Amino acid sequence: MPRASTTSDAFNAVAEPRRREILLFLASRERPVGDIVVALRLGQPSVSKHLSVLRRTGLVRARRAGRQILYRTNAEAVRPLHEWTKFFERFWAHQLTRIKERAESQAREQEKL
After folding, report:
1. Residue 101 lies in a domain
2. Could you say which of 38, 72, 96, 113 is the most buried, measured as most Cβ atoms within 10 Å of its Cβ?
3. CATH for 42
4. Taking the CA of residue 84 as centre, how many other CA atoms within 13 Å lie in the half-sphere pointing to its CB?
5. In terms of pTM, does the model score above 0.90?
6. Is residue 4 in a domain?
7. Could you give the CA distance from residue 25 to residue 51 in angstroms, rounded to a whole number?
8. Percentage of the chain exceeding pLDDT 90
């Protein structure tokens, strides 16, 4: 089955680690490209390409403020990603519980020796 384009599918768009970094960086407030370049130590052309993908998938919004374009994570567009990954939380919680129980059991065995 062919993979969806990174420009049409949010899951494919966030498969790229740099795009996830940009989304996290923009989550707290609007920022211009220059701030992203400096903070994440990426080249301006690279940041612009990543922002283009994130905008086309709706994960990032942009607005013009004078000569600058300010970018911000679109929380509503990220929601489906969150909801999908949230389903798997119960598996992670279960694994952590099992690890904790195993460690406690081993500690009790060590105390008996």
Report:
1. no
2. 72
3. 1.10.10.10
4. 7
5. no
6. no
7. 12
8. 59
**Burial of residue 40, with CB atoms counted within 10 A of its CB: 0-12 exposed, 13-18 middle, 19 or more buried:** middle
The verdict on residue 72 lying in a domain is: yes
DSSP code of 29?
A: S
Q: Is the distance from CB of 22 to CB of 50 less than 8 angstroms?
A: yes
Burial category of 75 from C-beta neighbours within 10 Å (exposed 0-12, middle 13-18, buried 19 and up) = exposed
Q: Give me the mean pLDDT over the 94-101 stretch.
A: 79
For 21-71, write each residue's pLDDT tens digit.
999 999 999 999 999 999 999 999 999 999 999 999 999 999 999 999 999
Contacts of 13 (CB under 8 A, 6+ apart): 6, 7, 19, 53, 54, 57, 59
* Distance from C-alpha of 47 to C-alpha of 16, rounded to nearest angstrom: 12
Coil, strand, or helix at residue 62?
Answer: strand
